[in-house]
TrEMBL record:
Residues annotated as signal peptide: 1-28
GO molecular function: peptide transmembrane transporter activity
This protein's name: Solute-binding protein family 5 domain-containing protein
PROSITE patterns the record matches: PROKAR_LIPOPROTEIN
Length: 514
C-alpha cells in the first residue's frame, strides 16, 4: 500500500529533436475518469487526510506531515502531472532542452501572479530552485535536482531563465523531477511568516495537526478555476476516524484510502470510490551492504520464491498488478523483452545452498503501509527454508537514517518515468537508496541516459541498465498498487488516473449541491 510519505515526488521528449515543448458516472466505484457532470461554482469542500504525527508545515520545498497535500492547494509549478503520468507545462509557457541534454531554457507565461499580487518573474524561479537545493534547507527532494548547477543559472529576461547541468550530468528528466514538490515561490517567501504561492487557493488559516482553510485565488493561472470558494483540509490521527467522518458527512473527500476502509465505504449509498490504476511501486529493498544480501545469489533467491500474484491478492486485496523487479513500465524506454520473473522455489533453494545460506534467518522491517505485504512475504519464504521475522515500525523510525542499516525493508516508489524513478530509488544520486546499490556500469549508463534527449538512443542505455537491475540490483519489485480515493456523491471532478494525485487536484473539484 502507498502512504503519503511514499509520494514525496514520462516526458514527451521528441525523438531525434532538441526541443521539448509541453502544452499546457456516479457509482460505488469509478475507474473511467472524473465523476460526470458540469462543474458548478461555489461552496466549500472538506478534504480529510490521515497524519498521525499531528505536525506538519506549509513549506513548499520541505513539506512535513500533511504539508505535502497542503502544497497542492498553495503552490503551482512550472510543470504538472497529466492523468496519464506525463508532465505538461503549467506556469511555464515554453521549455526547451539543448541537444546535449545539459541545459534548459524555460520561459514563464505572461501576466502570472502570486497570491499577494506580485508578478511572477525569472527572479522568483531562480530563487525557488536555489532555495529547494540549498544545503542549509536540507530538503529531501534536493537530490532530485542534484544535476543542476545551482550556481550557474542565467537570467535571460524578466520571464526566461537558462539552467545548466553540473559536470558530467544531464537534465533530461527535469520536467519529472522539478514538479510535485517544486513550487514556485516569490523572493520574499517564508514558509511561516509569508507562505505565498500561485496555487489554486490562498491560505486563510492554519492549525498544525488539526486543519487548514483556504480561499479561492481569483488570479489562478487556469481561467475559471478553481470551482469552489473555500477548501478545508482536516487532519485525522487514524483511518477509522476519517472513515466515520466521511460517512457522517463531516468531510467530503478522503485521499489514499486503504483497501480495508475502501471496502467499508463502498457499501454506502452516499460515497463513491474512485480507483486509479497507478504504476506506484511496491517492493522489498535488499541492502547490498548487509552481509546477507551482498551475495547476488541470495538476492536472486528472494526474487524467485516471491509469489507476486499472491502478494497482490492478499497484501493489496487485488487492488494492483504484478511487477517484474523493474519500475516505470509506462516509460517509452522500458525493456519489454525482459521475461517476467516467475516463482521457482526449487531454484531459490539451490541458489541459497550455493551461497551457503540454506538455513537463513533475517529480519524484515516494515512500514505501517507495508506491514501486510511483509507478513505475506514471510509466509512465502518458509517454502524456501527461510525464516523471516517481521518488525513493524512507525513512520518516524522507518524514514530515519537507521533505515540504511537494515538488511531488508518494505519499500515503494511513486509512479514516474525511468530516470525520475531512479533518482528516487537507486541511481548514483538517489533521494533514498536503501539498497545501497552502487553498480559502476549501471551508474555510467544511468548518467549517460540523463544527458540523452533522443528516445531511441536513450532506449539502448536504459535497456542495458534494466538488465543489470533485473539481474543484480537490490529492488524486489513485486507489484504496482492501485490508489483508491473516496468522495461524497455531492462532489464532482474526482477522476481515475495513472497518478497517485487524483484527490489532490483541488482545482478540479466542485460541489453538485451549490
Amino acid at each position: 500500500m502507498i502512504s503519503r510519505r511514499d509520494l514525496i515526488g514520462r516526458g514527451s521528449l521528441l525523438a531525434g529533436s532538441s526541443l521539448l515543448l509541453l502544452s499546457g458516472c456516479n457509482s460505488a466505484k469509478t475507474e473511467d475518469g472524473p465523476l460526470v457532470g458540469t462543474p458548478k461554482r461555489g461552496g466549500r469542500i472538506r478534504v480529510g487526510t490521515v497524519d498521525p504525527s499531528a505536525a506538519g508545515n506549509l513549506d513548499a520545498h520541505k513539506p512535513t506531515g500533511a504539508g505535502i497535500i497542503r502544497g497542492w492547494a498553495l503552490y503551482s509549478k512550472l510543470w504538472e502531472w497529466t492523468p496519464d503520468v506525463t508532465p505538461r507545462l503549467a506556469l511555464a509557457e515554453e521549455a526547451e532542452i539543448a541537444p546535449d541534454g545539459r541545459s534548459w531554457v524555460i520561459r514563464l507565461k505572461k501576466g502570472l501572479e502570486f497570491h499577494h499580487g506580485k508578478t511572477i518573474g525569472a527572479d522568483d524561479v531562480i530563487f525557488s530552485i536555489r532555495r529547494l537545493t540549498d544545503p542549509n534547507l536540507a530538503s529531501p527532494f534536493a537530490a532530485l535536482l542534484a544535476p543542476i548547477d545551482r550556481d550557474h543559472i542565467d537570467r535571460l529576461d524578466d520571464r526566461t531563465i537558462r539552467l545548466h547541468a553540473r559536470a558530467d550530468q544531464g537534465l533530461v528528466p527535469l520536467s519529472e523531477t522539478w514538479i510535485s514538490f517544486g513550487g514556485i515561490v516569490p523572493t520574499d517567501y517564508h514558509p511561516v511568516t509569508n507562505p505565498v504561492g500561485a496555487g489554486p487557493f490562498r491560505l486563510k488559516e492554519f492549525s498544525p495537526g488539526q486543519r487548514s482553510v483556504y480561499t479561492r485565488f481569483e488570479n489562478y493561472f487556469k481561467p475559471g478555476q478553481p470551482y469552489v470558494d473555500e477548501l478545508e483540509i482536516i487532519e485525522f490521527k487514524d483511518q477509522q476516524a476519517r472513515t466515520v467522518a466521511l460517512l457522517s458527512g463531516q468531510i467530503d473527500v478522503a485521499d489514499i484510502v486503504p483497501a480495508e476502509q475502501a471496502r467499508l465505504l463502498s457499501g454506502s449509498s452516499l460515497v463513491d470510490i474512485v480507483e486509479s490504476p497507478t504504476n506506484g511501486v511496491q517492493s522489498f529493498d535488499m541492502n547490498l551492504k548487509h552481509p546477507i544480501f551482498a551475495d547476488e545469489r541470495v538476492r536472486q533467491a528472494f526474487r524467485l520464491f516471491a509469489d507476486r500474484g499472491d502478494l497482490v491478492q492478499r497484501a493489496l486485496q487485488g487492488k494492483g498488478r504484478i511487477a517484474n523487479d523493474l519500475y516505470a513500465p509506462h516509460d517509452p524506454t522500458y525493456d519489454l523483452a525482459i521475461p517476467q520473473r516467475v516463482r521457482d522455489v526449487a531454484q531459490a533453494r539451490s541458489l541459497l545452498k550455493q551461497a551457503g545460506k540454506s538455513d537463513l534467518a533475517v529480519e524484515l522491517v516494515a512500514s505501517p503501509a507495508g506491514a501486510s505485504a511483509a507478513l505475506v512475504f514471510a509466509e512465502q519464504a518458509k517454502d524456501a527454508g527461510i525464516n523471516i521475522r517481521v518488525k513493524k515500525v512507525d513512520e518516524a523510525t522507518f524514514y530515519s537514517p537507521e533505515a540504511r542499516t537494515w538488511a531488508i525493508s518494505t519499500g515503494s516508489i511513486p509512479a514516474r518515468g525511468f530516470l525520475a524513478s531512479g533518482l528516487h530509488a537507486d541511481a548514483p544520486t538517489a533521494v533514498s537508496n536503501r539498497t545501497n546499490f552502487h553498480d559502476p556500469r549501471f551508474g555510467a549508463l544511468f548518467n549517460a541516459a540523463l544527458a540523452q534527449p533522443d528516445i531511441e538512443k536513450r532506449k539502448l542505455l536504459v535497456h542495458e541498465a534494466q538488465k543489470i537491475q533485473h539481474q543484480r540490483g537490490g529492488l524486489l519489485i513485486w507489484g504496482f498498487a492501485h490508489v483508491q480515493n473516496a468522495a461524497s456523491k455531492q462532489i464532482g471532478g474526482l477522476g481515475s488516473e495513472r497518478t497517485q494525485f487524483a484527490a489532490w487536484r483541488f482545482d478540479e473539484l466542485w460541489r453538485r449541491d451549490t
